[in-house]
Amino acid sequence: MSESDDLRHGRGGGSGDGELDGEDPVAEWEFGLPSCDDLAPLSQALIPPDLASAFSIALRPSRTAGDVNRASRSTLTGLRRCGSTASSQGFSTNDNFKSFVDDRQSMEVEVEVEEGEKEEEEEEEEEEEEEGDGADKSDSRKSRRIETAEEVDSTPRMDDSQEDPSEKTSKRSRLVWTPQLHKRFVDVVAHLGIKNAVPKTIMQLMNVEGLTRENVASHLQKYRLYLRRMQGMSSEGLSSSDQLFTSTPVVHSLNDVAGSTGHGDGQMPMPTLMPYGAQPPMMPMPVYAMGHGYGHMRMQIGDLSGFESNQYVTQHRDWSSNKYGSVASYQQTASNEKRF
DNA sequence: CCTGCAATAT
DNA sequence: AATATTGCAG
Fold first, then answer.
1. Can you list the GO cellular component terms from the UniProt entry (predicted)?
2. How many CB atoms within 10 Å of residue A137?
3. Which of residues 153-172 of A touch strand C (CB under 7 A)?
4. Of chain A residues 215-274, which have a beta carbon within 7 Å of strand C?
């Protein structure tokens, strides 16, 4: 109990905290999220033409405007949530948020159907780095379900009969934290800094339709536990005094210290301190690390500063159907939080 | 009211 | 097993 205090930095009280009210965080939020970079060209075929032809796969015209548009027709639904919550907290920064919000349906949550089994989830997210020079990268990746028909429709599916996208009263089934969703979560958290990384704010910044504060809170709780473990281990071997100094380069408390730790790359934010080979036998944190079938743990960078494009070296195309355009670019000023 | 966290439920 | 809920303390 007492130990948990380090995480709570008294922000509760009342909403007022002054921190949120300020413009600082808000300003940073603007570029906070991944967007253009991730923008995986939906209109782009997932498989190279040559490869496709090699397998006699007919490349469909690709999902262009049509499909994309289809996937994004549920517009302002996201606004309702953001709007209401925002106002309740005095978030009048709509202008800034607008960037995200405006993009509305940036990402739909996926819901698990309890009785019905789970069909395939989203597609893959292969490591499409642009190593260019490397060239030794054969495309012999795993050619998974290549033609996953439409995927992202929109609006979370409820278990079966409960459909009331309007508002509450609808029992959202369990939310499935897909790697994409988690990534978004991590990105937001990482760039919010421990100070503002609270459920409500995270939820708002993630701007995922259907995401509730509870969803985030629950996930956040788990995420924190995970981080704690990591930190605990890494600092364990070192002199305990380091902890006292809180100057440990690691993600000391969450990821506010060196903004660099944030975002892994879809995986967990690995503290820069931990050697890649030093991974514990098995870290429980499935969803992100490998979750369902995404067992590839590619590099876990760990440093990268920021939100720039760096983090996506390994994988792009994330929240599939969303066209971020306005948000544009979190410049790199993203020195993000910390300080203060 | 909101957060964080453990325990507990599904 | 992964999430959701609940209860409690701040």
1. nucleus
2. 12
3. 171-172
4. 215, 217-219, 221-222
